[in-house]
Structures are given as C-alpha cells and as structure tokens.
Design a protein that fits this description.
Blueprint (H helix, E strand, L loop, with lengths): L6 H13 L46 H10 L4 H10 L16 E2 L5 E5 L4 H6 L6 H11 L14 E5 L13 H18 L3 E5 L1 H8 L4 H4 L4 E3 L2 E6 L2 H6 L4 H18 L1
Parallel strand pairs: 2-3, 2-4, 4-6
Antiparallel strand pairs: 1-3, 5-6
C-alpha cells in the first residue's frame, strides 16, 4: 500500500473507480510500461515531385467519415441478424472499446410497439441485453400493466426493445451528440427492419437521437411523427426510480399508448 494511504482511503478510491465504470481490466495480462519499447517516430512526409527540399506534399489522405461508414454498413444489412453483426463490427465509435458486449435488442421483433432507450448500464453490458437492471425491471412492470411484455406470445402483446447506442458509456454518462450521430444510421435501419406500428421514446437521449430534440417533460405524452411512424416520448424508467412522483405522468402516457393501439386494431 502506498505510504500515507490507509485502508479506508484505498477502499474509497477503489469504489470511486468502480462508480466511474472501471470495473475490470481490459487486457488479459499486466503490461510493464517501463519495459515496453517506445513507439517508433512517424516517418516524415515525402516531398511532392518537383517540390523544393523540405517542403512536403499538401495532398492528404482523407479520414473515414464515421457517419457515412455507418450508413453504408447499415444499408447493406438485409435483416436484423445482419444488422446486429454489422453494428458489432463497426470500428469508429470509441464506446465499443470499453464495453464488454454489444447490446442490440430484446423482445419480439414482430411486436407492434418498439421501445428505444438511452444506452446500456452495467448489468446490460454484462448480460448483453437492454433493460435488465433495476430500471428494466420497472419497465417490465409498467408495460405489463397495459398488457404488453417483451415475452409476449404474439405481436399484439409483445414489445421489442433497443437503445440509441449499443455500448455502455463510461461511468454511465449520456452519449455525446457525436456518438448519437454516428450510430443513428444503425438505429434508423433497425426501425426499418423491425417495422413497428408505434415507437416509444424513453427519455431525453432517445428523443435527441430520433427527434433531434430534448426536454422530455415538455415532449412527453405528445405524439409526433419520426422515422415514418408515430412516436410517443415518455420518461425513462431510471427517472422514475429517482423521482417516483413522476409515475402519474408516465401512467397517463401508457394509457395513451394503449388507446392508440386499440384504435389501430
């Protein structure tokens, strides 16, 4: 133990790292940074033909556009398994480097209702499924109350669940605008392939990813059109765990969803 650091301080520092999301080592074996060879210096750019000595060519290799790459990979996916494989192989998002699993979806892909949440938490990252922690358990109870379930036996009573981003952000922070933008083509294609009748947007991040807007307390309960179908924003179950007084508003939103489904039948 470091000189001047007692047991209680060491434990507090460890708990702080776990809270930030540093729950496991990334590598299989420790690395001796002092013994590792320093990286070789990058080669100097070669001068263009005919250029004076010491003047490098101004022609640069363009960097890959992450959004364009995502759009191309998503468009090439002919079905949901192909889309899941394309998403897992997408190399341009830094979130994937710190995640254990790519969390794609859960429930019945034929369901009339598709839920879009924010992103995986710790338990979701470990199990590779969306909404399996405390917020997910509350979500299941919420939708069971109106006759819908991710384990529903048919499309009329089933749910299909995904997130705006498939990898857990460090420390459970919100995804950035850049992360949402580069992963949006996969989300759009996901909706196209699942082809639900209605979408429920759970929280601000889902609204930002799909609608380009935030302010869930203003948006909730108001039907809007996006991705070619009706969308209903409502509060994320994690919000209800923090603020149980908001359950009344969410119950009103669920009743609105139930009525809309009945009118579409």
């Amino acid at each position: 133990m470091t000189a001047g650091m007692d047991w209680h301080l060491a434990r507090a520092l460890l708990e702080w790292q776990v809270e930030l999301g540093a729950t496991e080592a990334i590598g299989d074996a420790p690395i001796d940074r002092f013994a590792a060879s320093p990286p070789e210096p990058a080669a100097a750019p070669r001068p263009a033909a005919g250029a004076p000595p010491g003047v490098a060519s101004s022609v640069a290799v363009p960097a890959t556009d992450p959004v364009a790459a995502a759009a191309a990979m998503a468009a090439a996916a002919a079905d949901l398994p192909a889309l899941a494989a394309a998403l897992a192989a997408y190399p341009h998002c830094e979130l994937r480097k710190g995640a254990r699993n790519t969390v794609f979806a859960d429930g019945n892909p034929a369901a009339r209702v598709m839920l879009i949440g924010e992103g995986p938490g710790r338990e979701e990252d470990q199990r590779g499924l969306p909404f399996v922690g405390a917020a997910g358990q509350l979500l299941d109870r919420m939708f069971t109350a109106i006759g819908l379930s991710r384990a529903g036996p048919d499309a009329e009573h089933a749910l299909y669940i995904t997130n705006a981003v498939p990898w857990r952000p460090p420390g459970n922070r919100e995804p950035t605008a850049e992360e949402l933008a580069m992963l949006r083509p996969f989300l759009v294609r996901h909706v196209e392939l699942a082809d639900p009748d209605l979408i429920v947007l759970l929280g601000n991040t889902a609204c930002q990813a799909v609608l380009g807007r935030r302010g869930i307390m203003r948006l909730r309960g108001q039907w809007t059109e996006a991705l070619g179908r009706p969308c209903l924003p409502t509060l994320h179950p994690a919000n209800l765990l923090r603020s149980p007084e908001n359950k009344r508003e969410v119950w009103a939103d669920l009743l609105e969803l139930k009525a809309r489904l009945r009118n579409l039948s």
